[in-house]
Amino acid sequence: MAQKLASRQYPTPAIYGAGPFVGMNDAADPTAGTDDRAYLAQNVYLAPGPTGTAYVGRPGFALMGDSLKQLGSSGKRTVQYVGQFTKLSGTRYTIAIVGGQFYTYSFTTGDWTEVVTAGNFSTASIALSDSARVYALPFFDQILFSDGVNVPWLWDGTSGAGGLTECTNCPVLYGQPEAYYGKVFGIKAADRSTFVWSEEGDANLGYDTAPYSNAWTFTATGSDPLQCLAATNENLTVFRTYQIQSVTGAVTTDFATSGTRANVSLDIGTTTPSAIVTRQGIVFTDAQGRPFVIPPGGAPEPLWRGCQQTVRDVLKTALGVVQFIDDPLTNTLHVWMPSPGDEECTMALVLGKEDLAFQGVWNGLTAIRVAVIRDDNDVPVLIHGEADGRCYLHGTPDAGPWDDEFSAGDVPITHTVESAPLGFDVTEEKRFDLVEAGIVGANCSRVSFSVTTPRGVIASPLVCDLTSSAALRYDTGLQYDTGLQYASAVLDTRAIAGANALGRWARVSVSHAEAGEQFGVTMLRTRGYRVGSEHNAP
Q: Considering Cα of 114, then 116, then 122, then 127, what sign does the dihedral take?
């Protein structure tokens, strides 16, 4: 009599998912990740999506001027400053200082004009470095420029020498000047323990030039130099390398003795010559390059928990180039800094403007100087200058462009979103056989997947062509709606690829680098079977 065979047992697959996302956490510990925080988010930011927040690709940028336009002159191409100045009349000037030459940009003609020549500066007895970083401070109906090498100077928007004024009473200043109580405040470059200030409404009067004594020498334990000033309506915050103090009180003739000085931190400071004031407080980076915020009346609070690995190997000697940008179009705050091994700003830590949560990293460019300006339609846009003397205007989330235009041609932007470890188990390994991403974007044609487990990168790349119906696989337990089609006006579909990865957990990554395409991710998922049973999978 034939023996009766036991019925075949099929394992139950487990679905592990991530999203909607609220930020990024690059923690190396697989138990530290959560399914609402990406392990990597590159060249994307958080925006409202069809089912909660989505990671969407940053806009690209385009060359300002004709395709060969380089500011400065041969051998002198350092972008020292980019920014904007608006007169009280409403007239707006977009400015670049490159290689010791002064330019303004016209959105009407799309080109730069040298409006103040070297001869004009000479006529006004103003020395301007051709390489030093320039800081600017709009002050009443003028803009003050300081390069840390020469005394500051003012410009009122007039072409030629007539619009220039040398601040002969002001000493050489270090870093970013600040306006406080209607006066220019700055750190004295020759004495990095003293800050000085002007008279109210006049940037060329006051300071420590007789008969004025507008100077305060800050004594401290140790020899840390003054690094940065940050002014709010309530106080002036003074940063050393490893110390922060707050000064309050009316800036009168005896401010150096009547001002109230209080400790904010006795072990945290900065080596960056600037900070940024936000609604949540003063955002700065410490001597390790880690972002912090000082809430009103509080002590420094860390903003770096989610980017510990990202900033860990940043060159500490290069932190003097860090820049802070408030980007209203993407509702984000940027901390531009060198990537590990670099000495110029090649990445931006992107924080949510409302919650200051770390969202991810932007890269693919070298922002020697970067700023937010407004075009002729009053739309705020990013501008940055590269090391070759060229300046670039960034696009907007609604109009693009969706490539980065360099002088040699367009370069696709590489977007990547990678989940935190999914399906973590201390002892049990799994076979991960499918990966999935929720994709949004009007014209996204293909994406690629990779899977990382404790054994390494197991599968990369797995290309999914979203224009092919065969690539849109709808497996039970993985898909939401089999009726979604790529041809819709705004793509909202699921990209799926087969995988073969083994491990106790898996990070799923989706990347996109197609020319001229928008990209967004709402979620990432994978399917796993216990090891030993996957051969029985249906």
A: negative
- The C-alpha atoms of residue 453 and residue 432 are separated, in whole angstroms, by 10
The percentage of residues in the chain with a pLDDT greater than 70, rounded to a whole number, is: 91
**14-58+416-536 belongs to which CATH class?**
mainly beta
Report d(CA 430, CA 533) in Å as an integer: 9
The structure tokens listed for 192 are 């990095």
Q: How far apart are CA 358 and CA 307, in angstroms?
A: 7
Q: What is the pLDDT of residues 309-368, one digit of tens each?
A: 999 999 999 999 999 999 999 999 999 999 999 999 999 999 999 999 999 999 999 999
Euclidean distance between CA atoms 131 and 376, whole angstroms:
30
Comma-separated ranges of CATH 2.40.128 domains in the chain: 270-382
Average pLDDT over residues 268-272: 98
CA atoms within 13 A on the CB side of 114: 14
What b/e string do you get for 117-152 counting C-beta neighbours within 10 Å, with b at 16 or more?
eeebbeebebebbbebbbbbbebbebbbbbbbebbb
Q: Where in the chain is the domain with CATH 2.60.120.260?
A: 14-58+416-536
465 pLDDT more than 90: no
Least Cα distance to 364 among 397, 331, 342, 381 occurs for 342
Q: For residue 477, what pLDDT band results from cuts at 50, 70 and 90?
A: very low
Other CB atoms within 10 A of residue 319 CB: 21
pLDDT at 456: 87
- DSSP 8-state symbol, 58: P
Measure the CA–CA gap between 221 and 464, rounded to whole angstroms.
61
- Cβ-contact 19, 36 below 8 angstroms: yes
The neighbouring-strand residues paired with 18 are 524
Cα–Cα distance for residue pair 397/48, rounded to 1 Å = 12
Token readout for 26 is 């690059």
Say if residues 523 and 60 touch (Cβ distance below 8 Å). Answer: no
Helix (H) or strand (E) holding 382, with range, is: strand 380-385
* CA contacts within 13 A on the Cβ side of 112: 26
Residue with the two structure tokens 């530290």:
32
Structure tokens belonging to residue 307: 């980017």
Alpha-carbon Rg for the chain, nearest whole angstrom, is 27
What was the pLDDT predicted at 214?
A: 97
The helix/strand/coil state of 109 is coil
The 3-state DSSP class for residue 53 equals strand
3-state secondary structure of 256: helix
CB 153 within 8 A of CB 166: yes
Q: What is the CATH number of domain 270-382?
A: 2.40.128
Reduced to 3 states (helix: H, G, I; strand: E, B; else coil), residue 511 is strand
